Amino acid sequence: MSIRHGLLALLERGPRYGSQLRTEFESRTGSTWPLNVGQVYTTLSRLERDGMVAQDGEDGAGHPLYVITDAGRAELRTWFERPVDRTSPARDELAIKLAMAVGAPGVDIRAVIQAQRHHTVRAMQDYTRLKARAVSALESGGEQRRDDVAWLLVLEQLIFQTEAEARWLDHCEARLIRLSAATAPQDPPPPEAPVAPPVARTARRG
């Protein structure tokens, strides 16, 4: 998640101070990725160091205001135009957990998958309910329409992500079942029944 670019995008709309940026960032993303004020000001300091923002006076309450510079606007345009790099994917805790669970002594990996599946389905249901509310807010045409659209896009990404995770978990379980069947020791064939010796026939005497 690029906090610095998110802050630049908000500053392009006009001067902001730290806690205001935090509030607007969380409003735009539905608090999916909460920030603390210290994190915001640390990022602003780095942006100021890099010449992408500058302090520009204070508001009526004495909060220092930050504005975006031309260099910051150029960086923001580049960020919007550049695809998100997937060649170095972020570490996924679930993938790491299942990878480490394979062959771990005393760990039932299918139980791990089942527990995660229940959690994923619950999350999907929660996101779906939140999406219904976001759609309802959009249809009402309130003043927060821009933030509602942004929140809806984030929610739909989360829904697609959890749906994909649920399918992946189903795939993992099916894969483990197939591998278990393929590597299971084969039962030896049942012993053949002994063949009874032929019964000698007694010649009939005339």
UniProtKB/TrEMBL annotation:
PANTHER family: NEGATIVE TRANSCRIPTION REGULATOR PADR (PTHR43252:SF6), TRANSCRIPTIONAL REGULATOR YQJI (PTHR43252). InterPro entries: Tscrpt_reg_PadR_C, Tscrpt_reg_PadR_N, WH-like_DNA-bd_sf, WH_DNA-bd_sf. It comes from the Bacteria. It comes from Streptomyces tamarix. Residues 182-206 are annotated as: Disordered. SUPFAM superfamilies: Winged helix' DNA-binding domain (SSF46785). Residues 91-176 form the Transcription regulator PadR C-terminal domain. This is PadR family transcriptional regulator. Residues 186-197 have a biased composition (Pro residues). Residues 7-77 form the Transcription regulator PadR N-terminal domain. Signal peptide: none annotated. Gene3D superfamilies: 6.10.140.190, Winged helix-like DNA-binding domain superfamily/Winged helix DNA-binding domain.
